[in-house]
Amino acid sequence: MQDMHKFTLGTAVLAGGRSSRMGQNKVLMEYQNRRFLDRICEELQGFDEKPCISAAMPGEYEDLGLPIVCDEHREIGPMEGIRQVLIHTSCDYVFVCAGDMPFITGDLVRYMAEFISSDYDCYCMVDEDHIHPLCAIYSKKILPVIEELIEQGQYRLMQILRRARTKYIRLESSCFDKKQLRNINTREEFESLSLPLIFCVSGIKDSGKTGLIIKLINEFIRAGYRVGVIKHDGHEYAMDQEGTDTYRFTEAGAQISAIYSDTQSSMNRKGKVTAEDMIAACGDVDVLILEGLKDSTYPKVEVVRRAVSEHTVCATEHLIAVATDVVMQDAVNCPVYDINDIAGIYTCILGYFGMPGRVVTES
């Protein structure tokens, strides 16, 4: 392999796609309050040039303060973006990825760079299902190959890989996984990024948490979500009754004692159990509601009912909304809903997590 000091490596993001299947510019969509493009460019810092952005039109993405190149040949897809990046770079090689790959990391790029040698001009990630020409390192030397393909009207990226000396780097031989190569092309794929939605319904004792949770469960299920609920009890309780087998297992010293049937299961575990432990055990759901945990940092809907209290007790910065029959809007810095406005609370929760509202069908 070539010594790292004998070549230079830049990075680039292709952000000029049409996003026709998504219906809006994918690279500007937000995941965990950060745009795809911002996440990717931050990961691609620290190489021999600042990350370069390939845009379809001048004037796009200038707020990032990064070098931008624009298409000369329009409507021919990502091949023109790669061409422009290679024309304008001063580096020997450029790592190129798509702008809809929010899980790309700099560590993956550095791993790929370890394969650079004089034997190849292109280094492309592959997994058991796909070849990924938009997760690849291209040598500036292959620019004539790309220009010849464009002249011939051949715009498929696989043509570059076939004509260049290409090294295919197998994902399964690395410490990385498919998530880093994932493209987010559709609204459904984007929605799945935020799942499961995890939030608390909190409040003081007898405020009505359980009733609100049951109504929210109905809303989520009617919209097609799979729902799980975890209740936190501030007091110790016994899952097993004295004399049962699971009780005897626990008494004998078993760290975990579990029982299940065709329709249900229960588990007892020794030692401190955290909310994170319980969340990890609740695998395959889209929405996970935690009852209680008013002092936690999880986002939460707080229930405040006049019959038991007149004030919120949760930290304001962690509140999604307040469901109440007493608290006024000017008392808190989050939305306030009537305790019976279940549709409003449901929609607010989806909005907090950046989820588009699903249609709730009438039963």
Describe the structure.
- The chain has 363 residues and is α/β, with parallel strands linked by helices.
- Helix content is 24%, strand content 23%.
- The chain contains 10 helices and 17 strands.
- The protein has helices spanning 36-43, 78-88, 106-113, 143-151, 157-163, 187-193, 209-222, 245-251, 275-280, 342-352; strands at 9-14, 30-31, 34-35, 52-55, 68-70, 93-98, 122-126, 131-139, 166-170, 197-202, 227-231, 256-260, 265-269, 287-291, 300-304, 319-324, 336-338.
- The strands form 4 sheets. Strands 5-4-1-6-8-7-9 form a 7-stranded mixed β-sheet, sandwiched between helices. Strands 11-14-10-15-16-17 form a 6-stranded parallel β-sheet.
- α2 (78-88) packs antiparallel against α4 (143-151) and α7 packs across α10.
- The longest helix is centred in the middle third of the chain and has 14 residues, at 209-222.
- The protein is elongated.
Beta-strand portion reads 15-25%
Number of strands: 17
Instruction: Provide the structure class.
Output: alpha/beta
Percent of residues in helices: 10-25%
User: Tally the helices: what do you get?
Assistant: 10
**Mean pLDDT over all positions:** 86
Spatial extent as radius of gyration: 27 Å
- Lateral arrangement of strands in the main beta sheet: 5-4-1-6-8-7-9
User: What's the N-to-C terminus distance?
Assistant: 64 Å
Shape: elongated
Low-confidence stretches: none
Please trace the helix and strand order, writing H or E for each element: EEEHEEHEHEEHHEHEHEHEEHEEEEH
Largest beta-sheet characterization: 7 strands, mixed
